[in-house]
Amino acid sequence: MYQFGDFSRLNYDINLKVNSDPCCSGTKAVTGQLGQTLMISCFYPVEFETNPKSFYRLDGFNEAELIRTSGTEQHQDDRFSISDDRKNKVFSVNITDLRKDDGGLYSCAFTEDMSSFSYQSFFTVFQLQATEVTKDTAENPDGKLDTSESGFTTIIIITLVICVILLLGVVSALIFYKQIWKKLQGTFDRNVLESLSEMPHYDEIKDHTPHADTEETEYYSVIPLHTIPSVHPNAVEKEDFY
């Protein structure tokens, strides 16, 4: 309970009630890069959906209103812009061309208009720090990945993986067929040896006929014994044969 007034008039009693909400408590630390754009989001309770929203800079006991919005349209004022998303119960403030002296305490606020007076409620305090631009940020100021470069790198990686898989498949196939060939070759050699072992033996036959020349002697020498016909009484005389 508070009272205000002067001694010459009646005093007014004010009953102050402080409400708390998980969305609007505590101090949050935010960091921005010098020269870039920083966005700060302020969530608020549903009962203040239609209230005007403000963004303040806090300096001890002094507060300076930087920008205000009374609707859902984005509002721009110098380096500050503000927009209200009533569906998600959040309004956002953008600070462009961030400077070193922008560091400090900030607070979100909404205005409540009463019949005889109005007041502002401050909530969600932000501790802002502006830092130097790093090398990676300077090369990519938007903080986004270069999709063309990343896409090309992805294609190269996929191609290399496919080549390795194909190479492993070819090597595996060669090893598999080599093993099969060795098994087939061993089976073939065994079959050949078994066939040769079952064939009849041949003896060398020498023809001592004085008229037989060398070619005829060699010819008869390769005829197996079981193929030489037995001498028949009606056989043709050797002299008639020559």
UniProtKB/TrEMBL annotation:
The protein's GO terms of the molecular function aspect are:
transmembrane signaling receptor activity
One Pfam family in the UniProt entry = V-set
Family annotation (SUPFAM superfamilies): Immunoglobulin (SSF48726)
> Where is the Immunoglobulin domain positioned along the sequence?
27-128
The record, for InterPro entries, names: CD300_family_receptors, Ig-like_dom_sf, Ig-like_fold, Ig_sub, Ig_V-set
Task: Spell out the GO cellular component terms annotated for this protein, sorted alphabetically and separated by semicolons.
Answer: plasma membrane
**Where does it primarily localize?**
membrane
What protein am I looking at?
Answer: Immunoglobulin domain-containing protein
**What species is this protein from?**
Tachysurus vachellii
